[in-house]
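INPUT
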Amino acid sequence: MSTPDAEAAARAALPEGTRVVIRIEEALSSKTAKRGDRFPISLVEDLSLGGRAVVAAGTMGVGEVIHAAGKGFGGRAGELIVAARYLDVGGRRLPLRGFRINSAGANNTGEAIAASIAIPLAGLFVTGSSADIAAGQIAEAKTSQSFATDVPSITTTNQQGMTE
Amino acid sequence: MTSLKIVAASILLAALPAAPALAATTKGSPAPATLPAAPEGQGQIIFWRSGTMVGAAMGCGVNIGTERISALGAGKYFILNLAPGAYEFNAKSEAKDVLNLEVEPGETYHVKCTIRMGLMSGRPNLSPSNVAEFNEKRDGLKYVDSDDIGPKVLADPGIAAPAS
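OUTPUT
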């Protein structure tokens, strides 16, 4: 009788660092986003092992806002840093890392300085633009740990009859 | 005779360096073609500031919480290798600007500092950048001077290490 550990070991694992293509499913803006906000993401391309899809495209997951700062006076542009946290694979979490869409709006510092030369302090009232990430934007991430799948491990038999 | 000795001693003292215990400041060197990677298990952040005239006389002090890491003059950069985790960087003048980052092993991040208009003085702003933006400016950047290399900051990669 096989133990759960032996069964898990008998299944092929998606290796750590597997490339994952992700889509942002909800528009994000530095105007409204706050650090810690969560948003939906989805898998764009199947994750495959030995030519067989083990995590299907369309699998949903969760992303998180790491940093958000609104645009401001003096030409300050909005800032937004987000990360992909995990994909929900049949109730199990496939953790992700290495996903970053750093978005900074256009910085109008130069214009602000020019305005302040023309009219003292006017530069304080020139603002940069917000940082926005559109719904549907594609980015890449990596799996952050090995992930056991439902696919049986591929074993081969050598000429001496030993499995390897 | 005694007064002659006092005069001679005074001349000798005047000829000595004012502060022999302090090492002379070494100017930073231009960015080499290849920057050193972070050690195994750590992430790397490259902080940079372009050499524009805006706020050129003002330093951009970079801190983690209350700990001073380094200060970026105009046209300078420095490299920080850190253990994985969440960090709150800030730059302060009349206002405090905060940038939250999550450092992951084997990843490289870029952060730029710009100086914005303020009421009494310029306001440093730390914002997310990327490798393309850094590479566009890197030919004009030099490493921070030796007196701005804090204990956590990597030594100037443009200076060859002495042969051991």
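end of record. The first strand of chain A starts at residue 11 and ends at 14.
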